[in-house]
Design a protein that fits this description.
This protein has 548 residues and is α/β, with parallel strands linked by helices.
Protein backbone atom coordinates (compact mmCIF):
# COMPACT_ATOMS: atom_id res chain seq x y z
CA UNK A 1 0.00 0.00 0.00
CA UNK A 2 1.38 3.36 -1.02
CA UNK A 3 2.06 5.92 1.66
CA UNK A 4 -0.48 8.78 1.77
CA UNK A 5 2.49 11.13 1.40
CA UNK A 6 3.43 9.42 -1.87
CA UNK A 7 -0.12 9.92 -3.13
CA UNK A 8 -0.19 13.57 -2.01
CA UNK A 9 3.15 15.38 -2.43
CA UNK A 10 1.54 18.61 -1.21
CA UNK A 11 0.61 16.93 2.10
CA UNK A 12 4.14 15.55 2.39
CA UNK A 13 5.62 18.98 1.75
CA UNK A 14 3.43 20.68 4.36
CA UNK A 15 4.03 18.01 6.99
CA UNK A 16 7.79 18.06 6.35
CA UNK A 17 7.76 21.84 6.68
CA UNK A 18 5.80 21.67 9.95
CA UNK A 19 8.07 19.02 11.49
CA UNK A 20 11.33 20.65 10.40
CA UNK A 21 10.07 24.06 11.46
CA UNK A 22 9.16 22.74 14.91
CA UNK A 23 12.55 21.08 15.37
CA UNK A 24 14.49 24.19 14.37
CA UNK A 25 12.35 26.51 16.49
CA UNK A 26 13.00 24.24 19.50
CA UNK A 27 16.40 25.93 19.72
CA UNK A 28 14.57 29.00 21.02
CA UNK A 29 12.71 27.18 23.81
CA UNK A 30 15.44 27.39 26.49
CA UNK A 31 15.61 31.19 26.43
CA UNK A 32 12.23 32.21 24.96
CA UNK A 33 10.00 29.48 26.38
CA UNK A 34 6.91 28.26 24.59
CA UNK A 35 5.64 29.52 22.24
CA UNK A 36 9.04 30.41 20.78
CA UNK A 37 10.02 33.92 19.77
CA UNK A 38 9.28 33.21 16.09
CA UNK A 39 6.66 31.24 14.19
CA UNK A 40 8.71 30.37 11.14
CA UNK A 41 12.31 29.20 10.77
CA UNK A 42 13.82 30.28 7.46
CA UNK A 43 16.19 27.30 7.53
CA UNK A 44 13.20 24.93 7.49
CA UNK A 45 11.57 26.88 4.67
CA UNK A 46 14.74 26.84 2.56
CA UNK A 47 15.45 23.15 3.21
CA UNK A 48 11.96 21.97 2.26
CA UNK A 49 11.73 24.30 -0.73
CA UNK A 50 15.08 23.19 -2.16
CA UNK A 51 14.31 19.52 -1.53
CA UNK A 52 11.04 19.90 -3.43
CA UNK A 53 12.61 21.76 -6.36
CA UNK A 54 15.47 19.35 -6.93
CA UNK A 55 14.70 16.81 -9.65
CA UNK A 56 15.20 13.08 -9.07
CA UNK A 57 18.90 12.18 -9.19
CA UNK A 58 21.22 9.51 -7.82
CA UNK A 59 22.26 11.47 -4.73
CA UNK A 60 18.77 12.57 -3.68
CA UNK A 61 18.53 9.86 -1.01
CA UNK A 62 21.81 11.01 0.52
CA UNK A 63 20.77 14.67 0.38
CA UNK A 64 17.44 14.07 2.11
CA UNK A 65 19.20 11.82 4.60
CA UNK A 66 21.69 14.60 5.38
CA UNK A 67 18.84 17.06 6.00
CA UNK A 68 17.10 14.55 8.27
CA UNK A 69 20.32 13.82 10.17
CA UNK A 70 20.95 17.54 10.62
CA UNK A 71 17.44 17.91 12.05
CA UNK A 72 18.13 15.11 14.55
CA UNK A 73 21.37 16.82 15.65
CA UNK A 74 19.51 20.11 16.09
CA UNK A 75 16.81 18.37 18.12
CA UNK A 76 19.45 16.85 20.42
CA UNK A 77 21.13 20.26 20.80
CA UNK A 78 17.76 21.79 21.74
CA UNK A 79 17.23 19.10 24.38
CA UNK A 80 20.76 19.57 25.70
CA UNK A 81 20.38 23.33 25.82
CA UNK A 82 17.12 23.02 27.75
CA UNK A 83 18.68 20.65 30.30
CA UNK A 84 21.75 22.84 30.81
CA UNK A 85 19.59 25.94 31.22
CA UNK A 86 17.42 24.26 33.85
CA UNK A 87 20.25 22.61 35.75
CA UNK A 88 23.11 25.10 35.46
CA UNK A 89 21.49 28.38 34.43
CA UNK A 90 23.58 28.78 31.27
CA UNK A 91 23.38 27.86 27.62
CA UNK A 92 24.90 24.77 26.07
CA UNK A 93 28.56 25.09 25.08
CA UNK A 94 29.31 22.43 22.49
CA UNK A 95 33.04 23.05 22.76
CA UNK A 96 33.23 22.15 26.44
CA UNK A 97 30.05 20.22 27.22
CA UNK A 98 30.32 17.29 24.82
CA UNK A 99 33.00 15.80 27.06
CA UNK A 100 30.48 15.73 29.92
CA UNK A 101 28.21 13.19 28.19
CA UNK A 102 29.85 10.20 29.95
CA UNK A 103 29.48 12.01 33.28
CA UNK A 104 25.83 12.77 32.50
CA UNK A 105 25.17 9.11 31.73
CA UNK A 106 26.87 8.10 34.97
CA UNK A 107 24.70 10.55 36.92
CA UNK A 108 21.58 9.19 35.24
CA UNK A 109 22.54 5.67 36.24
CA UNK A 110 23.36 6.64 39.83
CA UNK A 111 20.15 8.65 40.25
CA UNK A 112 17.64 6.62 38.24
CA UNK A 113 19.16 3.16 38.31
CA UNK A 114 20.63 1.17 35.46
CA UNK A 115 17.29 -0.11 34.12
CA UNK A 116 15.51 3.26 34.01
CA UNK A 117 18.59 5.13 32.74
CA UNK A 118 19.13 2.56 29.98
CA UNK A 119 15.45 2.70 29.04
CA UNK A 120 15.58 6.51 28.77
CA UNK A 121 18.73 6.46 26.66
CA UNK A 122 17.31 3.78 24.38
CA UNK A 123 14.01 5.67 24.11
CA UNK A 124 15.86 8.85 23.17
CA UNK A 125 17.85 6.97 20.56
CA UNK A 126 14.73 5.40 19.08
CA UNK A 127 12.95 8.76 19.03
CA UNK A 128 15.90 10.38 17.25
CA UNK A 129 16.06 7.52 14.74
CA UNK A 130 12.33 7.71 14.02
CA UNK A 131 12.52 11.49 13.62
CA UNK A 132 15.30 11.16 11.08
CA UNK A 133 13.65 8.28 9.25
CA UNK A 134 10.30 10.04 9.10
CA UNK A 135 11.79 13.28 7.85
CA UNK A 136 13.75 11.53 5.14
CA UNK A 137 10.60 9.73 4.00
CA UNK A 138 8.70 13.00 3.84
CA UNK A 139 11.45 14.82 1.95
CA UNK A 140 11.63 12.03 -0.64
CA UNK A 141 7.86 12.00 -1.15
CA UNK A 142 7.63 15.15 -3.24
CA UNK A 143 9.51 15.12 -6.52
CA UNK A 144 8.79 14.59 -10.16
CA UNK A 145 5.76 15.82 -12.06
CA UNK A 146 3.54 15.84 -8.95
CA UNK A 147 5.71 18.31 -7.05
CA UNK A 148 3.76 21.45 -6.07
CA UNK A 149 6.13 23.71 -8.00
CA UNK A 150 4.60 27.12 -7.21
CA UNK A 151 4.67 26.48 -3.46
CA UNK A 152 8.13 24.92 -3.59
CA UNK A 153 9.45 27.86 -5.59
CA UNK A 154 7.90 30.34 -3.18
CA UNK A 155 9.39 28.56 -0.16
CA UNK A 156 12.79 28.46 -1.79
CA UNK A 157 12.74 32.17 -2.62
CA UNK A 158 11.56 33.09 0.88
CA UNK A 159 13.97 30.76 2.66
CA UNK A 160 17.10 31.31 0.61
CA UNK A 161 16.43 35.01 0.23
CA UNK A 162 15.85 35.44 3.94
CA UNK A 163 18.97 33.52 4.87
CA UNK A 164 20.97 35.61 2.45
CA UNK A 165 19.67 38.79 4.05
CA UNK A 166 17.47 39.85 1.11
CA UNK A 167 14.33 39.56 3.24
CA UNK A 168 14.54 42.01 6.17
CA UNK A 169 14.48 40.29 9.54
CA UNK A 170 14.28 43.09 12.10
CA UNK A 171 11.20 45.07 12.95
CA UNK A 172 13.07 48.34 12.49
CA UNK A 173 13.39 47.64 8.76
CA UNK A 174 9.62 47.41 8.26
CA UNK A 175 7.47 50.49 8.02
CA UNK A 176 3.95 49.15 8.09
CA UNK A 177 2.49 47.52 11.20
CA UNK A 178 1.31 44.45 9.28
CA UNK A 179 4.71 44.03 7.71
CA UNK A 180 6.30 44.38 11.13
CA UNK A 181 4.15 41.62 12.57
CA UNK A 182 4.87 39.31 9.66
CA UNK A 183 8.60 39.91 9.68
CA UNK A 184 8.91 39.61 13.46
CA UNK A 185 7.43 36.11 13.24
CA UNK A 186 10.26 34.96 10.92
CA UNK A 187 13.56 33.92 12.43
CA UNK A 188 16.85 32.18 11.73
CA UNK A 189 17.25 30.02 14.86
CA UNK A 190 19.66 27.50 13.35
CA UNK A 191 21.86 30.19 11.83
CA UNK A 192 21.86 32.04 15.13
CA UNK A 193 22.69 28.88 17.08
CA UNK A 194 25.55 27.90 14.79
CA UNK A 195 26.96 31.43 14.74
CA UNK A 196 26.71 31.71 18.53
CA UNK A 197 28.37 28.32 19.11
CA UNK A 198 31.10 29.04 16.57
CA UNK A 199 31.97 32.39 18.10
CA UNK A 200 31.87 30.93 21.59
CA UNK A 201 34.08 28.04 20.52
CA UNK A 202 36.63 30.56 19.26
CA UNK A 203 36.38 32.56 22.48
CA UNK A 204 36.62 29.39 24.57
CA UNK A 205 39.69 28.24 22.67
CA UNK A 206 41.37 31.59 23.27
CA UNK A 207 40.38 31.50 26.95
CA UNK A 208 41.77 27.98 27.32
CA UNK A 209 45.01 29.01 25.61
CA UNK A 210 45.31 31.92 28.01
CA UNK A 211 44.53 29.61 30.91
CA UNK A 212 47.21 27.19 29.72
CA UNK A 213 49.72 30.03 29.55
CA UNK A 214 48.74 31.03 33.05
CA UNK A 215 49.32 27.47 34.24
CA UNK A 216 52.74 27.43 32.62
CA UNK A 217 53.74 30.90 33.82
CA UNK A 218 55.67 31.60 36.97
CA UNK A 219 53.40 31.80 40.01
CA UNK A 220 53.88 32.70 43.68
CA UNK A 221 53.51 29.01 44.48
CA UNK A 222 56.50 26.72 43.98
CA UNK A 223 55.89 23.27 42.56
CA UNK A 224 56.11 21.67 45.98
CA UNK A 225 53.68 24.12 47.61
CA UNK A 226 54.16 27.13 49.86
CA UNK A 227 53.92 26.67 53.65
CA UNK A 228 51.14 28.20 55.71
CA UNK A 229 53.27 28.70 58.78
CA UNK A 230 50.49 30.45 60.72
CA UNK A 231 48.62 27.12 60.73
CA UNK A 232 51.62 24.92 61.48
CA UNK A 233 50.09 23.32 64.59
CA UNK A 234 46.42 23.68 63.60
CA UNK A 235 44.10 20.98 62.27
CA UNK A 236 42.40 22.43 59.19
CA UNK A 237 39.17 20.97 57.79
CA UNK A 238 37.68 22.13 54.50
CA UNK A 239 34.12 20.85 54.20
CA UNK A 240 31.94 21.33 51.13
CA UNK A 241 28.18 21.14 51.72
CA UNK A 242 26.42 19.94 48.61
CA UNK A 243 24.07 22.45 46.88
CA UNK A 244 24.33 25.02 49.70
CA UNK A 245 23.99 28.40 48.01
CA UNK A 246 22.94 31.83 49.25
CA UNK A 247 19.57 31.31 47.51
CA UNK A 248 18.76 28.92 50.35
CA UNK A 249 19.13 31.85 52.74
CA UNK A 250 17.70 34.66 50.63
CA UNK A 251 14.83 33.14 48.65
CA UNK A 252 11.43 31.84 49.66
CA UNK A 253 10.27 29.24 50.45
CA UNK A 254 13.69 28.12 51.70
CA UNK A 255 14.87 31.14 53.70
CA UNK A 256 12.76 30.61 56.82
CA UNK A 257 13.98 27.07 57.45
CA UNK A 258 17.62 27.76 56.67
CA UNK A 259 17.83 31.02 58.61
CA UNK A 260 16.40 29.28 61.68
CA UNK A 261 19.09 26.63 61.35
CA UNK A 262 21.81 29.26 61.02
CA UNK A 263 20.51 30.95 64.19
CA UNK A 264 20.58 27.57 65.92
CA UNK A 265 24.10 26.99 64.59
CA UNK A 266 25.17 30.29 66.12
CA UNK A 267 23.77 29.30 69.52
CA UNK A 268 25.39 25.88 69.33
CA UNK A 269 28.79 27.39 68.57
CA UNK A 270 28.40 30.01 71.31
CA UNK A 271 27.54 27.32 73.85
CA UNK A 272 30.64 25.37 72.79
CA UNK A 273 32.88 28.43 73.19
CA UNK A 274 33.56 28.67 69.45
CA UNK A 275 33.77 31.72 67.20
CA UNK A 276 32.44 31.94 63.66
CA UNK A 277 32.71 34.42 60.81
CA UNK A 278 30.83 34.14 57.54
CA UNK A 279 31.62 35.34 54.05
CA UNK A 280 30.33 34.99 50.55
CA UNK A 281 32.24 33.48 47.64
CA UNK A 282 31.33 33.13 43.99
CA UNK A 283 31.57 29.53 42.85
CA UNK A 284 32.90 28.50 39.46
CA UNK A 285 29.71 26.67 38.48
CA UNK A 286 25.99 26.67 39.13
CA UNK A 287 23.76 23.65 39.68
CA UNK A 288 26.42 20.94 39.54
CA UNK A 289 29.98 19.85 38.69
CA UNK A 290 31.08 20.07 42.31
CA UNK A 291 34.59 18.86 41.56
CA UNK A 292 35.28 22.02 39.54
CA UNK A 293 34.60 24.16 42.61
CA UNK A 294 36.74 21.92 44.80
CA UNK A 295 39.56 22.37 42.29
CA UNK A 296 38.96 26.12 42.13
CA UNK A 297 39.30 26.52 45.90
CA UNK A 298 42.33 24.24 46.13
CA UNK A 299 44.26 25.59 43.14
CA UNK A 300 43.55 29.31 43.26
CA UNK A 301 42.51 29.17 39.59
CA UNK A 302 39.05 29.62 38.02
CA UNK A 303 38.29 26.00 37.05
CA UNK A 304 35.05 26.77 35.23
CA UNK A 305 34.94 23.81 32.83
CA UNK A 306 36.01 20.20 32.53
CA UNK A 307 38.64 21.21 29.96
CA UNK A 308 40.22 23.59 32.44
CA UNK A 309 40.13 20.90 35.10
CA UNK A 310 41.94 18.46 32.82
CA UNK A 311 44.51 21.10 31.89
CA UNK A 312 45.20 21.79 35.54
CA UNK A 313 45.48 18.13 36.46
CA UNK A 314 47.75 17.37 33.51
CA UNK A 315 50.07 20.26 34.40
CA UNK A 316 50.45 19.10 38.02
CA UNK A 317 49.57 22.54 39.33
CA UNK A 318 50.36 22.83 43.08
CA UNK A 319 47.31 23.23 45.31
CA UNK A 320 46.46 23.78 48.96
CA UNK A 321 47.16 20.10 49.45
CA UNK A 322 50.80 20.74 48.53
CA UNK A 323 50.80 23.88 50.68
CA UNK A 324 49.66 22.00 53.78
CA UNK A 325 52.06 19.15 53.04
CA UNK A 326 54.84 21.75 52.95
CA UNK A 327 53.56 23.07 56.28
CA UNK A 328 53.92 19.66 57.86
CA UNK A 329 50.29 18.52 57.75
CA UNK A 330 49.10 15.04 56.90
CA UNK A 331 46.61 15.53 54.05
CA UNK A 332 43.35 13.58 53.84
CA UNK A 333 40.36 13.37 51.50
CA UNK A 334 37.00 12.09 52.78
CA UNK A 335 34.77 11.57 49.75
CA UNK A 336 31.72 9.36 50.38
CA UNK A 337 30.41 10.16 46.91
CA UNK A 338 33.37 8.51 45.18
CA UNK A 339 32.29 4.96 44.41
CA UNK A 340 35.11 3.74 42.16
CA UNK A 341 38.76 4.45 41.33
CA UNK A 342 39.62 8.14 41.69
CA UNK A 343 42.82 8.88 39.74
CA UNK A 344 42.33 12.62 40.22
CA UNK A 345 42.67 12.12 43.97
CA UNK A 346 45.96 10.33 43.43
CA UNK A 347 47.19 13.22 41.29
CA UNK A 348 46.20 15.73 43.97
CA UNK A 349 48.67 13.94 46.22
CA UNK A 350 46.68 13.31 49.41
CA UNK A 351 48.44 11.18 52.00
CA UNK A 352 45.22 9.20 52.50
CA UNK A 353 41.97 8.98 50.54
CA UNK A 354 38.75 7.67 52.09
CA UNK A 355 35.92 6.92 49.66
CA UNK A 356 32.64 5.04 50.00
CA UNK A 357 34.27 1.61 50.00
CA UNK A 358 36.96 2.44 52.55
CA UNK A 359 34.70 4.30 54.99
CA UNK A 360 33.08 0.99 56.04
CA UNK A 361 29.54 2.27 56.31
CA UNK A 362 27.20 -0.62 57.13
CA UNK A 363 23.97 1.29 57.47
CA UNK A 364 21.26 1.72 54.83
CA UNK A 365 21.63 4.17 51.95
CA UNK A 366 19.61 7.30 52.59
CA UNK A 367 17.90 7.81 49.26
CA UNK A 368 20.51 8.79 46.66
CA UNK A 369 23.21 9.33 49.29
CA UNK A 370 25.33 6.30 50.13
CA UNK A 371 25.60 7.52 53.74
CA UNK A 372 24.26 10.44 55.83
CA UNK A 373 26.34 13.54 56.54
CA UNK A 374 26.47 12.87 60.28
CA UNK A 375 28.34 9.62 59.63
CA UNK A 376 30.73 11.39 57.23
CA UNK A 377 31.56 14.06 59.82
CA UNK A 378 32.08 11.37 62.46
CA UNK A 379 34.54 9.63 60.17
CA UNK A 380 36.39 12.95 59.73
CA UNK A 381 36.76 13.14 63.51
CA UNK A 382 38.19 9.61 63.59
CA UNK A 383 40.52 10.04 60.61
CA UNK A 384 41.77 13.57 61.29
CA UNK A 385 41.35 14.51 64.94
CA UNK A 386 41.25 11.48 67.22
CA UNK A 387 44.62 10.26 68.48
CA UNK A 388 46.49 12.10 65.71
CA UNK A 389 49.91 13.41 66.72
CA UNK A 390 50.66 15.67 63.74
CA UNK A 391 48.35 18.36 62.37
CA UNK A 392 46.07 17.35 59.50
CA UNK A 393 44.46 19.00 56.53
CA UNK A 394 41.20 17.32 55.52
CA UNK A 395 38.93 17.99 52.56
CA UNK A 396 35.49 16.44 52.58
CA UNK A 397 32.36 16.62 50.45
CA UNK A 398 28.97 15.78 51.96
CA UNK A 399 26.06 14.03 50.25
CA UNK A 400 22.81 14.47 52.19
CA UNK A 401 21.92 17.76 50.50
CA UNK A 402 22.44 16.39 46.99
CA UNK A 403 19.42 16.48 44.69
CA UNK A 404 16.74 15.15 44.87
CA UNK A 405 17.08 15.85 48.64
CA UNK A 406 14.97 12.92 49.76
CA UNK A 407 14.53 11.50 52.29
CA UNK A 408 15.42 14.01 54.99
CA UNK A 409 16.39 12.37 58.28
CA UNK A 410 17.21 13.71 61.73
CA UNK A 411 20.64 13.82 63.38
CA UNK A 412 21.15 11.22 66.08
CA UNK A 413 21.83 12.65 69.53
CA UNK A 414 24.54 10.19 70.51
CA UNK A 415 27.45 10.63 68.10
CA UNK A 416 29.43 7.91 69.88
CA UNK A 417 26.76 5.36 68.95
CA UNK A 418 27.16 5.88 65.21
CA UNK A 419 29.71 3.10 64.94
CA UNK A 420 29.69 1.57 61.47
CA UNK A 421 26.37 3.20 60.57
CA UNK A 422 23.98 0.49 61.74
CA UNK A 423 22.53 3.08 64.09
CA UNK A 424 20.75 4.48 61.03
CA UNK A 425 18.88 1.19 60.46
CA UNK A 426 15.55 2.82 61.35
CA UNK A 427 15.64 4.48 57.91
CA UNK A 428 16.11 1.24 55.97
CA UNK A 429 14.02 1.39 52.81
CA UNK A 430 12.97 5.00 53.35
CA UNK A 431 13.55 7.00 50.20
CA UNK A 432 14.08 4.02 47.89
CA UNK A 433 11.74 5.76 45.44
CA UNK A 434 13.87 8.91 45.26
CA UNK A 435 14.35 8.54 41.49
CA UNK A 436 10.70 9.43 40.87
CA UNK A 437 11.34 12.92 42.25
CA UNK A 438 13.40 13.87 39.20
CA UNK A 439 10.10 14.01 37.30
CA UNK A 440 8.59 16.48 39.76
CA UNK A 441 10.69 19.62 40.46
CA UNK A 442 7.93 21.02 42.70
CA UNK A 443 8.23 18.07 45.09
CA UNK A 444 12.02 18.32 44.96
CA UNK A 445 11.72 21.96 45.95
CA UNK A 446 9.80 20.93 49.10
CA UNK A 447 12.75 18.82 50.30
CA UNK A 448 15.55 21.25 49.47
CA UNK A 449 15.45 23.48 52.58
CA UNK A 450 15.02 20.56 55.02
CA UNK A 451 18.01 18.81 53.39
CA UNK A 452 20.19 21.93 53.83
CA UNK A 453 18.89 22.16 57.40
CA UNK A 454 20.06 18.61 58.10
CA UNK A 455 23.44 19.21 56.44
CA UNK A 456 24.06 22.30 58.59
CA UNK A 457 22.84 20.55 61.73
CA UNK A 458 25.35 17.73 61.11
CA UNK A 459 28.18 20.23 60.60
CA UNK A 460 27.12 22.05 63.79
CA UNK A 461 27.13 18.81 65.76
CA UNK A 462 30.64 18.04 64.55
CA UNK A 463 31.93 21.52 65.34
CA UNK A 464 30.49 21.62 68.85
CA UNK A 465 32.07 18.26 69.71
CA UNK A 466 35.41 18.27 67.94
CA UNK A 467 36.54 21.82 67.05
CA UNK A 468 38.82 23.48 69.61
CA UNK A 469 41.53 26.13 69.88
CA UNK A 470 43.79 24.11 67.60
CA UNK A 471 41.23 23.55 64.84
CA UNK A 472 40.16 25.69 61.91
CA UNK A 473 36.95 24.48 60.28
CA UNK A 474 35.96 25.99 56.91
CA UNK A 475 32.47 25.03 55.75
CA UNK A 476 31.06 26.30 52.47
CA UNK A 477 28.63 25.42 49.73
CA UNK A 478 30.05 23.83 46.61
CA UNK A 479 27.51 25.54 44.33
CA UNK A 480 23.95 26.81 44.17
CA UNK A 481 21.21 24.28 43.49
CA UNK A 482 19.76 24.03 39.99
CA UNK A 483 17.71 26.99 38.74
CA UNK A 484 14.85 24.55 38.01
CA UNK A 485 14.48 24.23 41.79
CA UNK A 486 15.55 27.54 43.32
CA UNK A 487 14.39 29.87 40.54
CA UNK A 488 15.92 31.73 37.64
CA UNK A 489 19.04 33.89 37.79
CA UNK A 490 20.22 32.84 41.25
CA UNK A 491 23.85 33.81 40.67
CA UNK A 492 26.73 31.60 41.79
CA UNK A 493 27.37 32.89 45.32
CA UNK A 494 27.65 30.42 48.20
CA UNK A 495 28.08 31.01 51.95
CA UNK A 496 31.36 30.21 53.67
CA UNK A 497 31.62 29.78 57.45
CA UNK A 498 34.98 29.74 59.27
CA UNK A 499 34.89 28.32 62.80
CA UNK A 500 37.52 27.96 65.52
CA UNK A 501 37.94 27.90 69.26
CA UNK A 502 40.67 30.54 68.85
CA UNK A 503 39.15 33.91 67.85
CA UNK A 504 42.57 35.20 66.82
CA UNK A 505 42.58 32.74 63.91
CA UNK A 506 39.49 34.45 62.46
CA UNK A 507 40.47 38.11 62.78
CA UNK A 508 41.96 38.42 59.31
CA UNK A 509 38.75 37.20 57.69
CA UNK A 510 36.87 40.21 59.09
CA UNK A 511 39.28 42.51 57.27
CA UNK A 512 38.61 40.51 54.08
CA UNK A 513 34.86 41.21 54.02
CA UNK A 514 33.59 38.43 56.28
CA UNK A 515 31.37 39.30 59.22
CA UNK A 516 30.79 37.80 62.68
CA UNK A 517 28.03 35.23 62.96
CA UNK A 518 26.48 32.72 60.60
CA UNK A 519 24.67 34.95 58.11
CA UNK A 520 26.64 35.88 54.97
CA UNK A 521 27.16 39.53 53.97
CA UNK A 522 25.60 41.04 50.87
CA UNK A 523 26.64 40.43 47.27
CA UNK A 524 28.99 43.41 47.30
CA UNK A 525 31.28 41.43 49.62
CA UNK A 526 31.45 38.33 47.43
CA UNK A 527 34.91 37.25 46.34
CA UNK A 528 35.67 34.69 43.61
CA UNK A 529 36.25 31.22 45.01
CA UNK A 530 39.65 31.08 43.29
CA UNK A 531 40.89 33.87 45.60
CA UNK A 532 40.51 31.75 48.73
CA UNK A 533 43.86 30.03 48.41
CA UNK A 534 45.57 33.42 48.12
CA UNK A 535 43.57 34.73 51.07
CA UNK A 536 44.70 31.84 53.26
CA UNK A 537 48.29 32.58 52.31
CA UNK A 538 47.87 36.26 53.15
CA UNK A 539 46.35 35.40 56.52
CA UNK A 540 48.55 32.48 57.54
CA UNK A 541 51.46 32.24 55.11
CA UNK A 542 54.74 34.05 54.63
CA UNK A 543 52.84 37.11 53.35
CA UNK A 544 50.42 37.28 56.29
CA UNK A 545 51.45 40.79 57.21
CA UNK A 546 50.11 42.06 53.88
CA UNK A 547 46.58 43.40 53.60
CA UNK A 548 44.09 40.70 52.51
Amino acid sequence: MRSPFRRSPLLALLVALAVLNGVFLALEFPWAGFPPAHALALEAVASVGLAALLPPFRGRRWLTGAIALFAVVIALCAIGDTLVQRMQGRSLNLYTDLGLIPILIELMVSNLGMVVATALIVALGIAAFLLGLGLQHLLRSFHGHNTPWPLALGLTVLGVGGLAGIVPLSESEATESAAKAAISSIGRPVWGFIDFEWQRALDTRIALDNFGERLAAETPYPAEGLPLSGLADIHVILGFIESYGVAAIERDPFAGTVKRRLASLQRTLDDAGLSVVTGRVTAATLGGQSWLNHATFLSGLPITSQLRFELMMNRSRPTLIDDFAATGHRTLAVMPGITRAWPEGERYGYDAIHTENSMHYRGPPIGWASMPDQFTWQRVAEYALTGIGSPTFTELATLSSHAPWYPVIEPLDDWHSLGDGKAFARWTGVGDDYATLWQDPDRMRDYYAPAIDYALASAAGFASRYVDDHTLLIVLGDHQAAPAVIGSNPGRDVPIHVISGDPALLTGFLDAGFRPGTLPPGPESARPMETMRGLLHRLYGEARNAAP
